[in-house]
Amino acid sequence: MIHRTGFWAMGGYARFVWPSIGFAVAVLVWNLWSARRHHARALLRARRTAAMARSEKS
Amino acid sequence: MWTWFYRLASPPHVYRTAAALAPWFLALAAAMIGYGLIDGLVFAPPDYQQGDAFRIIYVHAPSAWLSLFAYTTMAVAGAIALIWRIKVGFAVAAAAAPIGASFTLAALVTGSLWGRPMWGTYWAWDPRLTSELILLFLYFGVISLRKAFEDPARGDRAAALLGVVGVINVPIVHFSVTWWNSLHQGATLAKFGKPTMPGSMLWPLLAMLLGYMCFFGGVLCMRLRGEVLDRERQAVWVREALAP
Q1: Mean pLDDT of B146-150
Q2: Using a CB-CB distance cutoff of 8 angstroms, which residues of chain B are in contact with residue A44?
Q3: B105 interaction partners in chain A (CB closer than 8 Å)
Q4: What value, to the nearest 5°, has the Cα angle with vertex B41 and ends B38 and B45?
Q5: In this structure, is residue B116 part of a structural domain?
Q6: Domain range holding B35?
Q7: Distance, CA of B217 to CA of B201 (rounded, Å)
Q8: Domain total of chain B
Q9: For residue A28, what pLDDT band results from cuts at 50, 70 and 90?
Q10: What is the rounded CA–CA span in Å between residue B139 and residue B116?
């Protein structure tokens, strides 16, 4: 186990390890956000289409 | 004979199944990635040669693995859609492409950050790195080609075809370290061999690999719902589902 004080230093490799972890986490977060937004936008378009179809009927 | 297959791939069935599966996949992913990161970054011992820099493996290897897995998923889905004319196949391929592209970029960036202290350079035109970069361009090609046509059906077919042709690059990426002289290290987890790392380093890596796979499953389900909804918004089942 890494000693607590040395944890952030990562044995002198902190400037390589932490940006890697940060970028990987950012990619995970972007994927979640992007997938949610993609579905929300599709839902909005589908609702608009359904509303237009209903107004055309009436 | 194939009725069950077509029923399974019906858009309303896929839309509902994806909604049910996504939270389970994401919950499993959160648990495994959480464990893998904590165990890998805090408890795993430093490597005897690479020191703590080796910890980049816990995000680099799963990203690289997922870049290949997502491409294979995209190509297989595209092939199924082209051969059996199953529209959901195009939706799966379209949903997998941006996820795969993002993890390919992650593999390249984290690999580059790992390469600097180990090889003395951020980038080398090494077979593994070059073939992974080609994989990223293939993803960009598939995504762009889908949007390049006015008729979405033609865009789907063209993108699926490029995806299927480009799958040849997947074994090239995987075996590049054995086929050519490479700066890149060999496989950490060989299919028929003993792992080259001790259990204290291996378990968090396996957890990260499984966690990334579950994450891919969850995000694919979420994106797939959007794709299915977009393609089927004129369909009766969508109107009925959205009726006030």
Answers
A1: 92
A2: none
A3: 27
A4: 120
A5: yes
A6: 24-242
A7: 25
A8: 1
A9: very high
A10: 26
B 117-176 residues inside an 8 A Cβ radius of A: 117
Q: Do B242 and A11 touch (CB under 8 A)?
A: no
pLDDT per position as a tens digit, B41-64: 999 998 888 889 999 999 999 999
- Asked if the structure places residue B170 within a domain, the reply is yes
Provide CB contacts within 8 A for B29, sequence distance 6+: B211, B212, B214, B215, B217, B218
- What does the DSSP assignment read for B151-216? SHHHHHHHHHHHHHHHTTHHHHHHHHHHHS--SS---SS-TTS--SS-HHHHHHHHHHHHHHHHHH
Structure tokens at B47: 């490597």
User: What residue in A sits closest to B63 (Cα-Cα)?
Assistant: A24
The answer to whether residue B226 is domain-embedded is: yes
Chain-chain contact of B222 with A36 (C-beta, under 8 angstroms): yes
Contacts of A24 in chain B (CB under 8 A): 59-60, 63, 106, 110
Of A1, A10, A32, the CB nearest to B55: A10
Q: Is residue B135 part of a domain?
A: yes
Q: pTM of the prediction?
A: 0.92
Contacts of B109 in chain A (CB under 8 A): 20, 23
CATH assignment of the domain containing B221: 1.20.120
Q: Inter-chain contact B102–A10, Cβ cutoff 8 Å? A: no
Distance of CA A17 to the CA centre of its chain: 21
- Report yes or no for ipTM above 0.90: yes
Distance from C-alpha of B12 to C-alpha of B140, rounded to nearest angstrom: 29
- B82 near B157, Cβ under 8 Å? yes
At B167, the amino acid letter reads V
Interface A-B, measured as beta-carbon pairs within 8 A, has a size of 116
What is the signed CA dihedral for B22, B25, B26, B29, rounded to 10 degrees?
A: -160
